[in-house]
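[PROTEIN RECORD]
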Amino acid sequence: MKALDAIDRQLIALLQDNARLSTVALAKAVGLSRSTVQERLQRLEAGGVIAQYTVRLGRDGDPLQAWLLVRYADGFSCDDVMPLLAQLPQLRFCHSVAGEIDLMALVQVESPGALADLREVVMAMKGVDDVTTIPVLRTMLDRMSG
């Protein structure tokens, strides 16, 4: 495969911002015909530069948020677990709750893989018996911001 030129890099950047852009929209953005852009995309795909078109969680590239529902191990309490959780920079909110779940923690990470890693860190903390992970798909109302 020949080296990437400025147009190839521009197409890649546009697709990284929005993988759903049509060939027509891409062609307009780079000032080439639709068929020329389509040929370039096919070359980039065949050469392995573009491996897949995918969906990122979060809106407008925002980091991924998730609720971690934490249940304490027998004999442990919020006073035991909270100091460990508070050390995590990804932690945004933490609520002690009543019921089968002891604590709800809102975390913010960059990717699903980072969420999986963070979940494992919390699961390994002394005093934690179980963690249920609930990714946030969309925020429908937020009166805390702004």
